Amino acid sequence: MAERLGDLVSARALETFVGREREMAALSGLLGEGPLVAYVHGIAGIGKSTLLDAFAANAVGRAVPVVRLDCRTVEPTPRGFLAALATALDCRLDSLSEAAASIAGLGPRIVIALDTYENFRLLDTWVRQALVPALPTSARVLIAGRIPPSAAWHAAPGWHGLFRSLRLEPLAAEESDCYLDRVRVPHAARPAINRLARGHPLALSMAASLTTADQDHEVGGRTAHAVIEHLSQAFLDSVPDTAARTALEAASVVRCVTEPLLQALLPDSDAHQALNRLAELPFAERSREGLFIHDAVRDAIAAGMEARDPSALRRYRHAAWAFLQDESHRARASDLWRCTANLLFLLENPVLREAFFPSGPHPLVVEPATFADGAAVRRITARHDPAQRHVLDLWWRHQQDAFHVARDNEGAVAGFYVMARGSELDPAVLAGDPVAAAILADLAGKDPARALVVRRWLDRNRGEAPSPTQAASWVDAKRAYLEMRGVLRWVYMALVAPRQYAEVATRLGFRPIPAATVNVGDEPVYSFVLDMGPGSVDSWLANLVGDEVAANARPPMDIFDTAGRELVLPWGRVGLTPLEFGVMRHLHDHPGKAVSRYELMEAVWNYATPTASNVVDVVVQSLRKKLGAEAGLIETVRGTGYRYRRVASA
């Protein structure tokens, strides 16, 4: 039989694959009677996708088909998943039952592989509760992503023994040396490369491609993030062609780059030739959407540009925004998610960035409430909002499907939120809830089917105040935003104490509705509305990005004097303690990047630990106190750590 292209691809996947015997042995269980779901996770560049390549090649050799989906290119909604699966299977799928039937016909064993799963945070509950149970018994699921699996995968009844989680660690020294041997790195250069990369596969690949490792003393003892940043800059410095170097910087500002987009970013360049040069890089990957620069490298190059040439970064962002906005107006329905994802990537607003592109795991999982959750919902309401207890009980009795609960690692209810479409408000709820009635009155003359009503959220410890429940609830609400893309126009929100959310809500476009402020018992409840405009979610996002691009048109203010170890503020200079200086320097050197607490621990305290320490938070609080009115320059990234923004003072 003639050799197939697929055989060549499979062989290529195994050429430079080394180590991972334990992980490959565990994943081989998917081909037999092992777990139903295997979840591979690890930091950026640790080799998750390469492991999937090797597993797929092994599966093909054993006549087991692998249907692989890149979650970067799939809209995180059930509709988007079914569309991507239909493309992969070359058929039409309108429901999960049709998908299950098609998969069942592919043979006695099939593996569905979901790569870059961190992009599916909005869809994780659906994958666990709807997709996997609906698959035929012949199917197995392999997931790979940066973020560890939520506790619900382990804690949910029935999953014991059927779910396997694998964390990828750096390669051992002998495995690293074996890799360098396969890519023909001279023996003399290997020790320096190994000292630099410390078993991190992406770092090994980049260092091997550079074939020089005499700079390791500059990053010795630093984190894998610092190594990638160092090597990314080394790659830029090693490119002799200025045009190619500029193309790499421009491509690092966007989620993925196509030839037309690259031409818009660099109007005087040969975009076709530049894109082909980029595709040859060891950290670039072609896909059906365009060319992806590896996240870790892309973020490092963009952060370096923000520190070194912020005007170029602003210029690229503006050009990308103009191009993508125009493209979204001309896009076919099948391309809308790509346009939306590209616009979302340009968005710097931390609330939305974390919702759509999470930078770390979240302690809570949000799920539709079940009847058994009623007691916990009532307890939380009685403790934090007794004035609205009878109203929320009315919602529970007549519209339980509007409730979503946030569960902790033990599966207990940590909080809840209530959300429904305007057209689905139950008559009994409208009759007994003056807030819902006031919101519906504001919808008079509008189409209530185009509205979402977020009626309430409460955390078991903090009530309505900012909390893990509130953060997780707004992330989950974005799933509804995407499911209603093209339809959704108005989002209503009701609050008892709105002042604590005023700044964030205003930045997102929410406006108060004075006529909808009503009393429930003795408690005033304030209502707000976000009007996304006729273009729905996509035009709202495009406008947010446009506002940011305009706001960033002026040069950023740099308030940090590294040499003087001081903050330079409008009212004078402020000295820093050694720890404050260390934290500020690390954040300042990585502008716009979400820096984890344990990365700060290793960089500042020289203490490597997998767990975060509150000593970082104490130092950040001290820094913010010294920053005064500029304290907002250090943003909190929920579930991860902190981010430094170089923005001009108002």
Quick overview of this protein structure:
By secondary structure, the chain is of the alpha+beta class.
Q: Classify the beta-strand content into a percent band.
A: 15-25%
- The name of the CATH architecture of the largest domain is 3-Layer(aba) Sandwich
Helix content: 40-55%
Report how far apart the termini are: 70 Å
Overall, the morphology is globular
**For the CA atoms, what is the radius of gyration?**
26 Å
Number of helices: 28
CATH class of the largest domain: Alpha Beta
Largest sheet: 8 strands, mixed
Q: Kindly give the count of domains.
A: 4
Number of E strands: 21
Mean pLDDT: 84
CATH level-3 fold name of the largest domain: Aminopeptidase
At the fourth level of CATH, the homologous superfamily of the largest domain is Gcn5-related N-acetyltransferase (GNAT)
Report on the structure:
- A hairpin with a 2-residue loop joins strand 14 and strand 15.
- The chain is an alpha+beta fold and 650 residues long.
Task: Please render the helix and strand layout as text.
Blueprint: H1 5-15, H2 21-27, E1 37-41, H3 48-61, E2 66-70, H4 78-89, H5 96-104, E3 110-115, H6 124-134, E4 139-145, H7 151-155, E5 163-167, H8 173-182, H9 190-197, H10 201-210, H11 224-238, H12 242-251, H13 259-265, H14 271-279, E6 284-286, E7 291-293, H15 295-308, H16 310-330, H17 336-346, H18 350-356, E8 365-368, H19 374-384, H20 389-398, E9 403-407, E10 413-421, H21 427-432, H22 434-442, E11 451-459, H23 468-483, E12 490-495, H24 502-508, E13 510-512, E14 518-520, E15 523-531, H25 536-551, E16 560-561, E17 566-569, E18 572-575, H26 578-588, E19 595-596, H27 597-604, H28 614-627, E20 634-637, E21 641-644
Helix pairs in contact: 1-3, 4-5, 9-10, 10-11, 11-15, 12-14, 13-14, 15-16, 16-17, 16-25, 17-25, 18-23, 19-20, 26-28
